Amino acid sequence: MGEVLVGTAIFACLAGAALVSLMVYERFPAHHRQDDTSAVVRLAANLFVVMSSLVLGLMINSAKNTFETIDHNVHS
């Protein structure tokens, strides 16, 4: 149940942040709304996605290796 609550809370925070950014977008100065700024933000977001994918892959691989080691010890 806790995982669902955390997931729902994170989704609500992200949705709220997206809605707030849509409301205040026009109030930003022009230099914050240029294509160069959007490109930098997009690159930073891509960096977070790549790093998260790498960490998730390493965690899954570690769990698999631990499971295989325990399985091998049990069946020996």
Tell me about this structure.
This protein has about 80 residues and is mainly α. The chain folds into two domains: about 1-30; about 35-75. It contains two helices and no strands. The longest helix is centred in the C-terminal third of the chain and has 41 residues, at about 35-75.
- Secondary structure: helix percent: over 70%
Mean pLDDT: 93
Global morphology:
elongated
What integer value in Å does the Rg equal? 21 Å
Question: Which helices and strands, and how do they pair?
Answer:
Elements: H1 2-24, H2 35-75
Briefly, what is this?
The protein is mainly α and 76 residues long. It has 2 helices and no strands.
Task: Give structural attributes.
elongated; 76 residues; 0% strand; mainly alpha
